[in-house]
Amino acid sequence: MSEAYERERQNNSRLDELASKVSALRGVTVDIYDNARSQDIIDSSNDVFSNMSTSLRGSASRLGRMAQAGNKVAILKLSGMIIGVVVLLWWILSWFI
Predict the structure, then answer these.
(1) What is d(CA 49, CA 56) in angstroms, rounded to the nearest whole number?
(2) Per-residue exposure over 34-69, b if at least 16 CB sit within 10 Å of its own CB, e if not
(3) ∠ at Cα 48 (34, 39), nearest 5°?
(4) I need a surface site. Which of 30, 54, 65, 95 has the fewest CB within 10 A?
(5) Which residues contact 66 (CB under 8 A, 6 or more apart)?
């Protein structure tokens, strides 16, 4: 009877060890998943900034063509809008900083 009790105790001990290893493995798996998701976010942010720079280049070239054409009213309107957006952003950011 005592031999069966000893084996049961050993089994319980091994079961506890196995449960702790499974728990550690689960933690590692969650960390890997979180890291992979953050890498995906970084990659998508990189794509967004790349598209934004392409769009900005296109806008700058259109602005250059417009300036060469001599459309001063359109240039003044665009300049006013840009200055307005910069002042608005500065005003909003001054509340948070």
Answers:
(1) 10
(2) eeeeeeeeeeeeeeeeeeeeeeeeeeeeeeeeeeee
(3) 20
(4) 95
(5) 74, 75, 78
Report the C-alpha gap between 70 and 84 in whole angstroms.
23
Alpha carbon distance, N-terminus to C-terminus of the chain: 73
- DSSP assignments along 7-76, one per residue: HHHHHHHHHHHHHHHHHHHHHHHHHHHHHHHHHHHHHHHHHHHHHHHHHHHHHHHHHHHHHHHT-HHHHH
CB contact at 8 A, 66 and 75: yes
pLDDT digits (tens, 9 = 90+) for 38-57: 776 666 777 777 787 788 78
pLDDT tens-digit map of 67-94: 778 777 877 888 888 899 899 989 988 8
Report the interhelical angle of 72-96 vs 2-69 (nearest 10°).
150
For residue 32 the two structure tokens come to: 């890997």
